[in-house]
Amino acid sequence: MGKIIAVCISEKKGIAKTPRESITLVENYGIQDDAHAGKWHRQVSFLSLERIEEFRSRGAKVDFGAFGENIVSEGIDLKKLPVGTRLSSGDVLLEVTQIGKECHDHCAIYYSVGDCIMPREGIFTKVLRGGTLKAGDEITVIPASPDRAFTAAVITLSDRCASGEHEDTSGPAIASVLTEKGFDVVEQILLPDGRPRLEAQLMRLADQRQVNVIFTTGGTGFSERDVTPEATIQVCDRMAPGIAEALRAYSMSITPNAMLSRAVSGIRGRSLIINLPGSEKAVREQLAYLLGPLRHGLDILRGTGDN
After folding, report:
1. Dist. CA 90–CA 136, nearest whole Å
2. Across 277-286, average pLDDT
3. Where does the chain hold its CATH 2.40.33.20 domain(s)?
4. Greatest extent of the chain over all pairs of C-alpha atoms, in Å
5. Which is it for strands 151-157 and 213-217: parallel, antiparallel or unpaired?
6. pLDDT, tens digit, for every residue of 121-136?
7. Cα–Cα distance between 197 and 190 in angstroms, integer?
8. Which has the closest alpha carbon to 32: 122, 108, 133, 101?
9. pTM of the predicted protein model
């Protein structure tokens, strides 16, 4: 059980928020009159009083909302709440969607207070049920349901698709098949071939969004720019070679060219990363073969199944 210490909003992104007496939350939208409201996954941000007090102990004078947080809470170790955890307060029900965030360029908050702890210490939620919140309201933590849908993300690697020269068909095909099979596809990303951006996205999706399974499509062949396997290996804590080996063997029953695939599969945290080919036909074939046993593996990985 925790408690709300302050509620804050701002009309512009990237600046400090202003404490209010109360805030009104709207289902699947966010906080009324707040700049971060919208139909996306980072509708309402949280930062703990404990982390703010630690920052103040360094001599900084910061008000609530200084780091862009919507809700200051006390008594809950926010960073230890897995994505999927729900927070209940009165009529309001929120779901944790991201832990921390990327901070590529320092915003107005950083230049104002000399640091911004929100990317390291904050969490983000979406509004499942709306209502009104104010300082003093209690917050109840509801563990993520073991029966919740698996989340997935899809990353297409293709110079020609990223430049607009060709249409990406394999990425949308993967997302469509996964959705039909009951997966919650939370992000679809199109990148040019290459390692740095792919590695950054794989780490973000695994660490911050805690996606159950991340599929890449493309970049697994012999071309000089085909480096998807190397990027995957770089970010993984453990490899899961049986998946890539089985997919290669299955595809070789369809075409001998499958032996030329360098695809790999591995695990980062509790996220499974699987390289698929860059062909729409091939990804559909491999997913049809893969999705049955994959569910068992994902259950084990997120701690809701037995070996």
Report:
1. 12
2. 98
3. 2-142
4. 67
5. parallel
6. 999 999 999 999 999 9
7. 11
8. 133
9. 0.93
Using alpha carbons only, give the angle 163, 166, 168 rounded to the nearest 5 degrees. 95
Question: Which residues of the chain does CATH 3.40.980.10 include?
Answer: 151-301
How far the first Cα of the chain sits from its last, in Å, is 33
Fold exhibited by the domain 151-301: Molybdenum Cofactor Biosythetic Enzyme; Chain A (3.40.980)
Pairing of strands 22-26, 30-31: antiparallel
The set of residues, in sequence order, having a beta carbon less than 8 Å from that of 270 and lying 6+ positions away, is 206, 210, 212, 301, 302, 303
Identify residue 6 by its one-letter amino acid code: A
Q: Note the pLDDT tens digit of each residue in 211-251.
A: 999 999 999 999 999 999 999 999 999 999 999 999 999 99
More confidently predicted of 109 and 23: 23
Q: Are 217 and 278 in contact (CB under 8 A)?
A: yes
Burial of 75 (0-12, 13-18, 19+ CB in 10 A): middle
**The CATH number of domain 2-142, selected from 3.30.43.10, 2.40.33.20, 2.70.70.10, 3.90.470.20:** 2.40.33.20
The helix, strand and coil proportions of the chain, stated in percent and rounded to the nearest 5, come to 30, 30, 40
For residue 56, pLDDT beyond 90: no
Among residues 186, 170, 161, the alpha carbon closest in space to that of 271 is found at 186
pLDDT band at 48 (very low <50, low <70, confident <90, very high): very high
Is pLDDT larger for residue 72 or for residue 105? 72
CA dist 13 and 129 (Å) reads 23
